[in-house]
Amino acid sequence: QMLEDPDELAVLEEIQQELILQEQSVIEEYERSLRFDEECLNAMLDGLDATDGVICPVCRKNNLTVKAHLVCCQCGLYISTRDMTEGKLRLLLESALTEHSQRCSHSPEFSVTSGTEEGASLLMSCLVCDSWMILL
């Protein structure tokens, strides 16, 4: 059945226009949301690229200062090393954590031990699986 009443057609056209405007509004909001998400993701990725430092495993707050013969942190970590770089230290920590995670689902703790004739050492230990490892 065809609608021939001009008033009914006008009402239907008005409803159609309102629906089109609502749809455009939703699409614009969705696109704004996508742009915002993309900007946030890019900012996070830029931030990751900017943080080349190695976070101290003991305090988990500060970046470690890594020099050829020394690894230290503002929290008091101070360990003598040989030929250490940030890259080597990062790989050492990552491989130790990966190895531990393969046999235990809990996070190990890091601490600095002293008392040896060689000086302080970085120790990774886990109370759950009763494991420990000297890293530095």
UniProtKB/TrEMBL annotation:
Please tell me whether the keyword Metal-binding is annotated for this protein. yes
Q: Name one Pfam family in it.
A: RPA_interact_M
The UniProt keywords, alphabetically, are:
Metal-binding, Zinc, Zinc-finger
Q: Name one GO biological process term.
A: protein import into nucleus
Any one Gene Ontology molecular-function term assigned to this protein's record: zinc ion binding
Which stretches make up the RPA-interacting protein C-terminal domain?
A: 55-133
Q: Which domain of life is it from?
A: Eukaryota
Whether Metal-binding counts among this entry's keywords is yes
Cellular component, GO annotation: PML body
Q: Sorted alphabetically, which InterPro entries does this protein's record hold?
A: RIP, RPA_interact_C_dom, RPA_interact_central
The segment(s) forming the RPA-interacting protein central domain are: 2-44
What PANTHER family does the database record attribute to this sequence? Answer: RPA-INTERACTING PROTEIN (PTHR31742:SF1), RPA-INTERACTING PROTEIN RPAIN (PTHR31742)
| Protein name, per record | RIP protein
| Species assigned in the record | Dryoscopus gambensis
- Tell me what gene encodes this: Rpain
